[in-house]
User: Fold this.
Amino acid sequence: MSKKCLFPAACYGTRFLPATKSMPKEMLPIVNKPLIQYGVEEAIEAGLTNMAIVTGRGKRAMEDHFDVSYELEHQIEGSDKEEYLKGIREIMNSCTFSYTRQIEMKGLGHAILTGEPLIGDEPFAVVLADDLCLAEEGDGVLAQMVRLYKQFRCSIVAIEEVPMDEVHKYGVIKGEMIRDDIYQISEMVEKPAAEDAPSNLAIIGRYILTPDIFDILRNTTPGVGGEIQITDALMQQAKEGCVLGYKFKGKRFDCGSIAGFIDATNYCYKMFY
Assistant:
């Protein structure tokens, strides 16, 4: 397993307009910490220290967040407010950040392909920051998946059961259970209608991908919504080898929706503050 984690973070976040008109949705705060920082912390816990972020126009705030703010730090130097910056300073000292821009929004598969120059020819993790995953005990979701990768050496997607009336929001898998929390995937469908869904096991925003995914994505034609879908590329990978679905241990909030964002804020406030 490499030390690289890719964050596709170029999309517009339209469900949070007008807030996201000038602020990246990845910078929306859960209490006092932006979503993307939670994702970076999860990656660091998993032993990943090279953060590769695919950004877009108007996303400069993410780069500034993981950088020194000389004016701010000068103003609060020596005060008790310095304590508020302790976490972000530790992040900046323990990992590196690299950035590239996705010029056109052509789907998650295209965003991942755009990150190829930052990743190279090695396995890597993918975190979608608006899926906030929190461990209730033990390792975080990404750490669990890295441990599985070291055992199986193939692409892995995080999955969870969702109500059938919500499967149209997700990529959905079908597969053979090889352990009570692991499926060898035989079918993947992007955003199916409930009557067409092969199961209620939905893919959420955590992946471990092998580097051959880039060549597959280059040859993947647009799918649902006219976008290049990572599920289509992973299905091709599953046909040629093995892709696993992992029912992770922990709690996940869909912070791309207003209801999920509010739930996550309330949960984190009660748990951590």
